[in-house]
Amino acid sequence: MTVVTNPAQKKASPAEQLDQLNTETAKLNAWIRTQANSPAQRPWFVDMGGESGAGELAKGRVAANQMKMLAHRWRWSEIYPYLQKISEIAGEAKGELLERTDRQGILLTNPGLGGRLQITNTIRCAIAIYNHGDVAPAHVHSPNASRTILSDRGGYTNVEGERCECRRGDIVFTPNGTWHDHGNDDPDPMIWIDMLDWPLMEYLDAVWVDQGYIAAQDAAKSNAKSQPAVHSDGHSTRMYGHGGLKPVFAPNQRGWGQNTSPMFHYKGVDVMDTLRALRGEKGDPFEGIKMQFVNPVTGGPVFASLDYCAQSLRPGEETGFKRETCSTFIVVLEGEGFSEIGGQRFDWVKNDIMAVPNFLWRRHVNTGKNDAVLYTVSDKALLTALGQYRSQGKNADGSITQIVQ
C-alpha cells in the first residue's frame, strides 16, 4: 500500500514535538525541557542606564508561579482608620477576637506577590493594635521576629522572662527559640509593627509555632498566658548596652536559637540620641547618617537572616542613587520627604511604610524642616552569609561606584 503525503505539510519542529510529548508527561508530574532558563532578573550589574533594572517575568513553563515584588508605599493615613475599627471590634468582643486569631492587626501584602502574606520575598509585616488588658499568650516559633513601636507609650513584650516596656521608636527582638508574650496595661490602645522572616522559613518548610508554655517554677501549670517576669525592664540595656563591653559573669545565650542577639530591647530614645549626636558628621553619600542594630556579643547582625538599621536625613539632604541585592522594608519614624524607587516617586510622612525591591535604584530626600528618621529591615544578613550581597552607587556624573563594605 502506498501512502501519499502532502508535500505542503510542514513537519513539526523538534520543540513542537517535545511540546506534544509534554501533554503526556504532564500526567507523570514531569516536564521535558523545551526552553532555556529565563530568570526574572536581567544582569543588573551591567545595566548602567535608566532607573528600573527590575527585569521582567519570564514566559512559558520556566515562568510557572514566578513572582517579583514591586516597589510600594502604604500610607499611614489609609491604614490607621482600619486599626481603629479593629480596636473597636476587639473591645466589644471582650477578648474573643484575640482568642480566635492570636493577633489583632493588619498584614501588609506586596502587589507583586500574588496576595501572599508578605511584603518582600523574605519578610512578613503586620501592624498590630492591642487594647487595655489584651494579652497574646506566650509562644515560641522558628521565624525570627521583632516589634517596632509606633505608639508613644503603652504595651510590653516579655521575652525569655525579660519584660520590655515599650515606647515609640523602640525595637524589641524575639529571636527564634525564645518564648515571648505581649500585652497592654496602658489605658490607651498601643500599636507596633511586627516583622518576621516567616516567608523565608516557609520556603524552607521550617515554620513551626508552639503555644504550650509551661511556667518553669510550676511544671503542673501549662498553657499559661504570660511568662513570669524574672528580669525587669531595661535588663538588656544594663547587660549589653555599653559598647565594647560584654558581660562574662552570665551566659550570653538566651533561648535556644542560634546566631541571635541576647539583647532583646533596643530603645528608641537611645537611637534618636545617637543619630542626633552624629548629625554634624559628613555621613554616607547614599545613606546619610546610618546606624546598624548589632548583636553586642558578635558585632554582627541581630539575626542571621535579617539586618536592622536606623538612618537620619538632615533637612534638605538628598542621598545619591543606590541599589543592592537585598530587598528592604522602610518605616518613617520621623519627618517628611520622598523616595525615588525604580523611577517611581513615593512621598512619605510619619509612620508611612515602603518596600524597596532588590536591584532597583533608589534615593531618599528630606523635604521637611527637621531631621527625618527611617528604620529599615532587609535580608542583607542572609545574602551576606550566602556571599550574594552586593551594592552600587550612582555618582553625580552618572558613573557607577561599586560599594565595598
Describe the structure.
The protein has a single domain, classed as Jelly Rolls (Sandwich), CATH 2.60.120. The chain has helices at 14-25, 76-93, 96-101, 198-203, 235-240, 268-277, 380-385; strands at 72-74, 105-107, 124-130, 135-141, 145-149, 153-159, 162-167, 171-174, 180-183, 190-196, 209-210, 265-266, 289-292, 307-313, 322-324, 328-334, 337-341, 344-348, 353-356, 362-366, 372-378, 391-394, 400-403. The strands form five sheets. Strands 1-19-16-21-14-13 form a six-stranded antiparallel sheet. By secondary structure, it is an alpha+beta fold. The longest helix has 18 residues, at 76-93. The protein is globular, with a radius of gyration of 25 Å.
- Proportion in β-strands: 25-35%
What string gives the helices and strands in order? HEHHEEEEEEEEEHEHEHEEEEEEEEEHEE
Q: What spatial order of strands do you see in the largest sheet?
A: 1-19-16-21-14-13
Low-confidence runs: 216-220
Q: Which architecture name does CATH use?
A: Sandwich
| Anisotropy-based shape | globular
Q: Give average pLDDT, whole number.
A: 86
* N/C terminus separation: 78 Å
Describe the structure concisely:
With 405 residues, the protein is α+β, with helices and mostly antiparallel strands. Helices cover 16% and strands 28% of the residues.
What key attributes describe this structure?
405 residues; alpha+beta; Jelly Rolls; six-stranded antiparallel sheet
Draw up the topology in text:
Elements: H1 14-25, E1 72-74, H2 76-93, H3 96-101, E2 105-107, E3 124-130, E4 135-141, E5 145-149, E6 153-159, E7 162-167, E8 171-174, E9 180-183, E10 190-196, H4 198-203, E11 209-210, H5 235-240, E12 265-266, H6 268-277, E13 289-292, E14 307-313, E15 322-324, E16 328-334, E17 337-341, E18 344-348, E19 353-356, E20 362-366, E21 372-378, H7 380-385, E22 391-394, E23 400-403
